[in-house]
Task: structure prediction
Amino acid sequence: MELHGYEMPEELYYEKNHYWVRIDGDILVMGMDDFAQKMAGDIMFVKIPFAGKKLKAGKKLAQVESGKWLGKVYAPVNGVLIEGNQALETDPMLINKDCYGEGWMYKIKPADMGEVENLIHGSDAVEEWLLADIEKYKED
Result:
């Protein structure tokens, strides 16, 4: 769905720092959402942590850099990182070009798939959260 100039697919779950999660069988695919990639500008670097890294929901997983921004990536759920998108090492701007497709960032094996329900999901919840962040970042 398109909300206030940002593409926010309805089937995805969103972490409060603007990373999306898609359920793919028993794993989660994660990436940066349209709002974050537009705010950040051209993505210049994405850290790809080692496979097997244990993740704790809300704790730093990696970092992303653009020409004007250095951001932290937080784990959306408890679990284990099973894969990073190696293509981002040579072309981090895949995030800008296709943040919901080729620009995916990480694949995670969650400790408990039910934790996904703690993320932001559903058109009303996503719109309310996005509007609040649009206002918040407009003031900065």
The helical segments are 34-40, 87-90, 94-97, 123-139. The mean pLDDT is 95. The longest strand covers residues 60-66.
